[in-house]
Amino acid sequence: MSFTLAIVGRPNVGKSTLFNRLVGKKLALVDDQPGVTRDLREGEARLADLRFTVIDTAGLEDATDDSLQGRMRRLTERAVEMADICLFMIDARAGVTPLDEMFADILRKKSANVVLAANKGEGAAADAGVIEAYNLGLGEPIRLSAEHGEGLNDLYVQLMPLADQFEAQAVQDTPETDVDLDEGDDDDEENYTVPVPTTAKPLQVAVVGRPNAGKSTLINQILGEERLLTGPEAGITRDAISLRMEWDGVPMRIFDTAGMRKKAKVQEKLEKLSVSDGLRAVKFAEVVVVLLDADIPFEQQDLRIADLAEREGRAVVVAVNKWDIEENKQEKLRDLKEAFTRLLPQLRGAPLITVSAKTGRGLDRLQQAIMRAHDVWNRRVPTAALNRWLVGMLEQHPPPAPQGKRIKLRYMTQAKTRPPGFVVMCSHPDKMPESYKRYLVNGLRQDFDMPGTPIRLTLRSQN
Ligand code: GDP
Ligand code: GDP
């Protein structure tokens, strides 16, 4: 069972470009003939493991007559009625326009499932537009670049829970229709109000690590049944990319990279495969669990994937597995913590949890660490509090004055979450030394209690 997604928005924001990217063919060839109304186009879209129908409402860009607005409105309303989910696109470079507000209005009135996308999001020129998009009151915008293919992983993260919801609805709907038709009761209208399942959005977790770290064993233990094949011989084939499960009552979707590797005869090929699978899983996850083997922790491959998770902006939890066979637990833990700080300074404050996938010990702490990391990753700091904080930070350590000109930091706001991203308006942003940015980032992390999440800080010049 899949769903239908309509891409709506004013002309020229990039709807067709995204449509083409999702459908994967040059199906939506740009029409050279002016004045041709292409109306609604449909295609079969793929985004990672999601398959859905996408409707493009581009087709009015050449219409210049007075009725443009009216036609656009009707077309959009029709698309909204056809679709399960609307992707409302704005142009982040242009910012929010009155026409965008009209679209937002339609979508709010239709109370559609809306995913907001700020397109043309590549580069700093889009920063202000992305911030403005929050004001549309349609939730957090996804920063996209349809042209460059950036932000598709964030789109996936937002679509996945909605897709789950439609799957659940489909299951609930089918038998009910039959019953009602047979009985011919007079409550017919009730049939059209689809019961909204109470399933919360599953938290998306990837378990990554080198072959034999114990990823499959860990997931089996969580599932509480031998659903995955495990064994000392690496290279067991499984098809699923992700599994839905409840872990202590919390709905989760776990991306299992071990299961994705194929039987490979050559060891080198196997290593390569598992690395690229790991990369893919990281992109789709909210929280990445880096699973280490206590015997051989922090190997090159572990460091690479942990660093990648940080650069991709995911929340990270480090879990040290096979703790059951460790003899000098205290000493070992001290060494591990020391190595962690030294080898992964970019993950400062991220939790390090010792577990045994085999016996299940420590898994409750791992679950809690995952939820907390997710929470921190989603944290939003109010603008007023941020600016009060900034004043204190500036007093404590005034910014440098390269060539006698003091850099002035004027104003600060949190532009995004998942992970937290902040924008500081200042003079001469290009002259700001990295050390002062680090001072601010570390201060944010400590004062607003955001351990173990990547924090992005952007300096923007204010004229
Ligand atoms: P539509 O009218 O909403 O369907 O918009 P199109 O997909 O036809 O795109 C309008 C223009 O924006 C084209 O010139 C695209 O190449 C350009 N465009 C689309 N996406 C992006 C993007 O992510 N970044 C930039 N810089 N340009 C884009
Ligand atoms: P994967 O390649 O990361 O999926 O690793 P597997 O889950 O297949 O585990 C590799 C081997 O390590 C198997 O022989 C498991 O039985 C063993 N193993 C996994 N977790 C533990 C653990 O917590 N303790 C011990 N002693 N062995 C484990």
Automatic annotation (TrEMBL):
PROSITE patterns: G_ENGA (PS51712). Residues 175-191 have a biased composition (Acidic residues). This is GTPase Der. It comes from Parasedimentitalea huanghaiensis. Residues 171-195 are annotated as: Disordered. Associates with the 50S ribosomal subunit. The keyword Membrane does not apply. Keywords: GTP-binding, Nucleotide-binding, Repeat, Ribosome biogenesis. It holds the Pfam family MMR_HSR1. One of its GO terms (biological process) is ribosome biogenesis. Residues 3-167, 203-378 form the EngA-type G domain. One of its GO terms (molecular function) is GTP binding. GTP 2 binds at residues 209-216, 256-260, 321-324. Signal peptide: none annotated. Belongs to the TRAFAC class TrmE-Era-EngA-EngB-Septin-like GTPase superfamily. EngA (Der) GTPase family. GTP 1 binds at residues 9-16, 56-60, 119-122. The keyword Nucleotide-binding applies. GTPase that plays an essential role in the late steps of ribosome biogenesis. SUPFAM superfamilies: P-loop containing nucleoside triphosphate hydrolases (SSF52540).
